[in-house]
Description:
The chain is mainly α. It has a domain at 32-90. The chain has helices spanning 2-62, 67-74, 78-103. The longest helix is centred in the first third of the chain and has 61 residues, at 2-62. The protein is elongated and about 90 Å long. The termini are far apart. 7% of the residues are buried. Residues 88-113 are annotated as: Disordered.
Amino acid sequence: MSGSVQTRTKARKSDLMNSFQTDLTQAWAQAKEHIKIIGDAREQVARSEEQLSSIALRLAEEYQQTPAAIASAIDLPKRTVNTMLRRARERRKQEEDTSTQVTGNNENEPYGQ
């Protein structure tokens, strides 16, 4: 009888391990999918923030809107708008610097120098 009990106990342990392994595999697959979804969402948010900051910068520079007016118009805190404007200016400066490095042209220098 003792051999039969051990066999059943081993079979139950094996079934539990297989079930655990299957559950773990499924949970990991689901987690990887969620990680991908979160990554995609972060990219979309970053693109949206970049577009919004570019629009805010245009409002500030071309239409002389204050950060407070922009904040009121888009229903964001003024501090957030100031951060967006700063990042947009930094991004524009970085793009200009990269463009100057790649082309070797500086729009501020007269021709022939």
